[in-house]
Amino acid sequence: MINIDKELTQRMMAEEDKGHRLVAYNKEIEFYELVASGNTELLEERMKNFGKDQKMGLLSDDALRNRKYHAIILASMFSRFCIEAGMDIATSYNLSDIYIEIIDKLTTGEEITAISKKMALDYCKRMQNSLKSSAMSRNVVASIDYIRTHISGKLTVEDVADAMNLNPSYLSKLFKKEMGITISQYIRDQKIAIACNMLRHLDDSSLAISNYLGFSSQSHFIQVFKKCIGIPPEEYRKLHYHQSWMEGDT
Questions:
Q1: Domain stop point among 87, 104, 133
Q2: Using alpha carbons only, what angle is made at residue 199 by residues 231 and 106, rounded to the nearest 5 degrees?
Q3: Model pTM?
């Protein structure tokens, strides 16, 4: 078994330019903070040369595994910096887990670079949206949180208003003013977004998805889905089932 203290001493003595560690550290912290800031435009500009001539510490003798380890570190750091900047803890950790699972299955350095950039931008966009929502009233933010938490099953304007201890008419007007759409439209859009994800990645039937999301019937689900997406659920599945993130899956 390796002697940790001895190995640490040898590496410290062998390191010629100790100053570059501090420079690299400061650049890393600046990058993580940029992701957590929600400034997607600046992040996209900074990432134009992402991965090019980038020196990485040696975490494994296997080149591909070394790249994966560094990408996993990125996922962990993005998660923690975004939590500190206000991202929901469960969202941040689960998002990190999803990307780590993807990274683990990749087979080339180019794929790892691509997913690392996608991951950075994903976290940054979510922080941007989170910062925008901070300008909304407490009641609307709480309503959105309630809707997202209870999106499976039947959900009405009255259900949301009751949970907020507000008059349904008052909440509806407030929500429309701040969000630009009605609560019913927002609930519908959230359900259809989840349905799209389920159709892309799961084998569940349209009936099962309809029941899970609380539609009154399978035919109603198909009708609403087609109105929102333009095609029926099963046709959407045929076009997008198990579509790779490399092909633009979001």
A1: 133
A2: 125
A3: 0.52
